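Write out this protein's structure.
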Amino acid sequence: MEPFPVFLSVVFIVRNQSAHIESILLDATATISALVSDYELIIVDNASDDKSISVLKKLTNEHGLPNLQVYALTKEVDADTASWVGLENALGDFVAVIDPLVDDIGFLPEMLDRAVSGADVIFANNKQKTAQSLAYSGANALFNIIYKRLVGFHLAKEAPQYRILNKRVVNFILQHPQPAITYRHLPATGGFARVNLNYSSTPKTSNTKRLGDSIDRGMRLLVSTTRVPMRLVTTLSLFGAIANLVYAVYVLVIGLIKPDIASGWVSLSLQQSGMFFLISLVLLVLGEYILHMASLSNEGPLYHVAQEFTSARMTRREKLNIEEVSSMSGAGAVRVL
């Protein structure tokens, strides 16, 4: 198969994979270099505490692999934020985001074929999932049910992490105030031409996820995707106001037709408990929105790159705005445009 005449950026998220990162990148380089005419492989190290950085520095020296870009984070972040670190630094016409331990890079040619054919976003869903704890699986299923009911699509199946975006989609996400959060859902909800593909491949390793981090991530996705939580606040507030008005009428009627006011004690108790319940729900949802708005206005960057290094060997000279010019004497020179 002839290579696709495009410049492809591939983003890998890794953490504590010093024992396997070299073989992973060797296989990836062999696959990608045969697939496209020009490429870069962006490695985002998610705050590894093993020897991963040393291995990556060795792989970027003059005897290492070409076209590697490495970004080492100072602290561990969620997968969406780590993916965005690579995406916003990508130069390619198309950007693929891959978890090398879970996603099958061998499926990339079929995805890229759809991208070159005109699709803005290509999602690939692996039917074989890594095993997770019962608590995480239950919470994940509940979240996706709620998300589908509120937003209209199943996030895990219709917008999985394994994806290819063209440069127009990346630039569109960049315009949002917190692209690292909206990156997860915006390609599926922004009106782009998208293709959803399915494949089946056994993950290389189990990728156990923490329930607490996933709950926080899910709440951020919900409040950044839809206005339904805020609409729920206004609806509950309106219902509480109407209920109090109805209760006031009820008290007046009881006062007129009943000589013994104490007969309304049961109803009063039920009303009070109901009102306190509604107020609690309002405060809960409103609190989530306040936290979200505070994060937009006060929170600093979600990540910080501690180290950044590039391969000593680069094959994409034309992408670096470098051209050779010859002088009158015949000697060659290099000019940076």
